[in-house]
Amino acid sequence: MKAILTAIVCVIFTLSSLSSIAGGDENKSTSTYSLWLGDFRINNYYLSNELTFEIRIINNGNSDIEYAGGRFIINFYASVANGGELTYSITGPDTSDLPVNLRPVNPQIHINGDSGQLILESNFFPGSGNGFFIPPNITGKRIIKMKLRTSASSFLIENGAIGYYVEMYPEWRNLPMENSTNIFAYEDSRLRNITSPQNHFINGIGLTPVELTSFTSEVNVNEVTLRWSTAQEINNQRFDIERISPGSGKWIIAGSVPGHGTVSGVRDYSFCEHLSSGTYNYRLKQIDYNGNYEFFFLKNEVDVGIPAKYKLLQNYPNPFNSSTIINYELKEDCNLNISLFDINGKEIMNLEQGSFKAGYYTLRLNSAELSTGIYFYRLAGHGNSSRFNLLKKMLIVK
């Protein structure tokens, strides 16, 4: 295999200076972050000789990180070149979220047998107050987008039971300190090495099978609709839709949508759900048939507002046999009671009661202990400014 060793020019800082910045308890950092290598994409389903990916940093703390710069080294399987020569370069569009002077520079490839390293040198440190401030945010900021290319007709491909994968096997190089990935930030006006190797991750291994071209959201009252499109899919089993609300600290699976396997051309997807009032973030977890996955984050937050009035909606389905859904809306914090009455006006069941925050609510009524007939359900209570008494009719058919 031929290998290309790019010249090392204009070294930004020496290895000894890296060590001096990193060393000593006085430089112990309080910043917490995650560093992600991901969003792997091939240039073409039928001609897989270019692979793009990005390096992204996420602030896991409670205050801004003043990013100063970083050196990024990735170990990989050099035989992925498949007999060709490898080149490593910064690519675009949308190369980085950072200003030009804070982006890493001088991409290089070092190869020794089957082992290789992809290296990006650090920018010049800008001085305290001139760094890039990264706020706490689950989507983070893109440091740089890179491209790896082989002069062969395609990368080395592994043919699996379903689909195929580029045999790159990337890993962050985290040790030794003087020849590894390092992240620098300003804390209390001092330049510090904030590197935390345990927080360096790979988002998927090898080839990511899906090229996402759009991911948007719409809100209608409390109905949230997500829409996304793909340009091509390889070995795509499904998308898990994951949601998080600020302060919860945990992503939950809101639903799942099947993928299209291996296809070329545009495919459109959508997902809809009803939520209580609040602010939410979403991401798609794309999963292939071999269990590999990657995340796609919705760039904007989704806000579900407060209802304008008290409202009791018609149950659905109606008529129903075994169970039905009742939705209701509260314009302010209140005390309430939801009761079920038979056709003679006798209260036979209490469905909900207590103090509730303003927002949108859903309850499920099980009719296992109820017979066929007409029933009424009532929402009654009072808030700070008004009282309410709302009534609806339902029909059980068994």
Structure in a nutshell:
With 398 residues, the chain is mainly beta.
Rough shape? elongated
Q: What is the element string, with H for helices and E for strands?
A: HEEEEEEEEEEEEEEEEEEEEEEEEEEE
Largest sheet: 7 strands, antiparallel
Structural class: mainly beta
Mean pLDDT: 86
Low-confidence stretches: 1-26
Rg value? 28 Å
Description:
By secondary structure, this protein is mainly beta. The chain is 2% helix and 55% strand. It contains 1 helix and 27 strands. It has one helix at residues 15-22, and strands at residues 33-42, 50-59, 65-77, 86-90, 105-112, 115-121, 132-134, 141-150, 157-159, 164-166, 171-172, 182-187, 190-193, 200-202, 210-220, 223-244, 252-274, 278-288, 293-297, 302-304, 311-312, 323-330, 334-342, 347-356, 359-366, 373-383, 387-396. The strands form 6 sheets. Strands 3, 5, 6, 7, 11, 12 and 13 form a 7-stranded antiparallel β-sheet that branches. Strands 15, 16, 17, 18, 19 and 20 form a 6-stranded antiparallel β-sheet that branches. Strands 4-8-2-1-14 form a 5-stranded mixed β-sheet, with no helix packed on it. Strand 26 and strand 27 form a beta hairpin. The chain is elongated. The termini are far apart. Residues 1-26 have low confidence and may be disordered.
